[in-house]
Amino acid sequence: MKTKLGLCILQYVLAVVILIEAVLFILPSAGHDFVRSTHMPALIRLILGWGEIAGCILLLIPKTAIRGAWFLFAVFVFAILIHLLHGSYNVGNVVIYAAAALAIALGKV
Fold this sequence. Notes:
With about 110 residues, the chain is mainly α. The protein has one domain (about 1-105). The chain has helices at about 1-25, 30-40, 40-60, 65-85, 90-105.
């Protein structure tokens, strides 16, 4: 019972936190910092941001929570790979997000 409650809390906290961060990430004001710091096209920022938003929405709906968790996990892995390929090794927070999404995906079965 405690494990189910813990996973449920993790699911909703992860979805809300990532949803807020993703919305801020896709705003036009975030585009200048992203392009300047990563030297990547703004399209990558939009793909990651909208992917996170879609995953969060799926995660918030009980019938699609497992799919949403797997989708978010894939988006986070993609983000980690992009960071690493561009020499940005500060990906600890994204790794934690990916681990949380994986725990939800595996624990909800």
